[in-house]
Amino acid sequence: MPRLKDACADRDTEREGDWSTIAVSLSGGRSRLTSCRCAAPLKILNPRLDAPYCTAILSSYGGGLVAGDKVHLQICCGAGATLFLGTQAFNKVYRSPAASGSSQQLDATIGPGGCVVAFPDPVVPYADSIFHQEQRWELEENALLILVDGSTAGRLERGERFHYNSYASDIAVSCQGQQVLVERLLVQPDKFAPQRTGAFGEFTATMNLYVVGYPDEARFALIRTYLEARLQAQVQAQLQSPRARDKICNTLISFAQPRPQVFVARALGRTTAALNDLVDLVGAAVAAPEILGENPRRRKY
């Protein structure tokens, strides 16, 4: 625990100013927010809940990111602590008249035996927007990360479909210094049509789930087994349905365990609502007593 605190203190010194920070520690049998600093345009809400885990909800001034906005967030989840990281609403990215666009950078450390469930709402890039997000996660011994990353093709109700200029997402996760997951996505509709077969096709919403931990750790084994069994059933139903045979599927789901420390599930939906079954599945998985003990999204929706 002292080593984690020292690391956080060092980062605070190096990144003071435009960096927002969240620090969570285990105290009195509960995970508590022990340090929080907000730098515009990010706002961090910490609702007082009767729950053993700590909740941090990310929001922003104006309800979204405008051109030039740069969000920098550092997270330190201490030894044995549990953090639920969510968002107040869909993360809207407004048009970018300048070439710089907007960006979001997250740098997080999960201490020994700690757990972070990062379950934000999807990113909605508006027409002519430019957005780049980067996430770096470091897991210490027996830590667990459950990370959801999703986006839409734009404001679908207004007929926007891949009308943005650029959307990029880079994710890297390491376990005790060893990189176990690297995920890079770059979509630039003007340069490479995302509607083509082999890319998004007729789908307009994406959701990726990453579970990263230690193979012998009980929580990692529990959630991997739970998800694998239920996703297998969904995939089988998907393949056997008349809609699948007629190529009129509203959702496509796949999953794999590419490394012993990593479980990945991916989904494409014709609409965001088409992904609700997977959202509910992840909510049920983290509701296990060994993880959060409840589905935190039920407090919101």
Largest sheet: 8 strands, mixed
In angstroms, what separates the terminal alpha carbons?
Answer: 35 Å
Low-confidence region ranges: 1-7, 9-14
Question: How many helices?
Answer: 4
What is the C-alpha radius of gyration, as a whole number of Å? 19 Å
Kindly name the structural category.
alpha/beta
- Summarize the helix and strand pattern as letters: HEEEEEEEEEEEEEEEEHHEEH
Helix content: 10-25%
- What's the overall geometry? globular
Number of strands: 18
Spatial order of the strands in the main sheet?
3-4-7-10-13-16-18-17
Q: What percent of residues are in strands?
A: 35-45%
Number of domains: 1
Mean pLDDT across residues: 90
Verbal overview:
This protein is of the alpha/beta class and 301 residues long. It has one domain (2-214). Helix content is 17%, strand content 42%. The chain contains four helices and 18 strands. A hairpin with an 8-residue loop joins strand 3 and strand 4 (54-60). Helix 2 runs antiparallel to helix 4 (276-286). The protein starts with a helix and ends in a 15-residue tail after the last helix. Mean pLDDT is 90; it is low at 1-7 and 9-14.
